[in-house]
Amino acid sequence: MPSKIFDVNTQLAFYGAYHSNKINVMIHMVFVPVLIWTFQVMASSLAVPSFIPEVHYTLNNYLRFDLNFAAIHAGLYIAYYFILEPTAALLYMPQAIISLLTATAYSKGSGHITNAAILHAGSWVAQFLGHGLAEGRAPALFDNLIGATVLAPFFVHLEIMFMLGYKPEMHKRLVNDVGKEIAKIRKAQGDKRRAAAAKSS
Fold it and tell me: Torsions phi, psi of 30, nearest 5?
């Protein structure tokens, strides 16, 4: 997978193989944006190293930009999404910007970091329940922590775009690739079970 880190089909097929259940996908559609936003709230409160220039711009009580860890995090994610699928990344930009600006503004309020932390933890619980009860398998982050956390927002965004008719050929190809990936995973699990059974007999 590292050699195909910038291949959109490979990356989304990997992540999609862990999110084939519709209920689990819906849970992620709700809680992945919440996870990103609450992370940005918490990251906005971290001290920024002195070598990073101070940039602060307050639009109003609800929108604020600071050059901080949340902004750097958002910038890196968006840059990666542009490499994977430029058009979808461009369409994701408004959501990403609003999330960052509102999270940064919210982080300045008293007690808001604690609220974000509670909501962040609850969102993780919801997703683990989605995987355990609906998907019936462990989440992707157990196999690829960085890949799963980076891909999650873009995967959710693309799922919504596909529902709206975005690039049907790409969607069809992705569904096919996800099916192949799931088949490989099930075969590997079956081989492992058979090997364990043969060893214990």
Answer: -80, -50
Residues 12-61 pLDDT 10s: 988 888 888 899 999 999 999 999 999 999 999 998 998 899 999 999 98
Rounded to an integer, what distance in angstroms lies between the CA atom of residue 25 and that of residue 134? 9
pLDDT, tens only, 128-149: 999 888 887 777 777 777 777 8
Burial status of residue 167 (CB atoms within 10 A of its CB: 0-12, 13-18, 19 or more): middle
- 116 with 42: CB under 8 angstroms? yes
Rounded distance between C-alpha atoms, residue 172 and residue 162, angstroms: 10
**Model pTM greater than 0.85?**
yes
User: In the chain, what is the straight-line distance between the N-terminal and C-terminal CA atoms, in Å?
Assistant: 35
Structure tokens given for 161: 């775009």
Which residues contact residue 27 at a Cβ distance below 8 angstroms, ignoring those fewer than 6 apart?
Answer: 126, 127, 129, 130, 134
The conformation of residue 141, written as its DSSP 8-state character, comes to G
Tell me the backbone φ, ψ of residue 166, rounded to 5 degrees.
-70, 125
Question: DSSP alpha helices (H): ranges in the chain?
Answer: 8-16, 22-43, 69-84, 86-106, 112-129, 145-163, 168-200
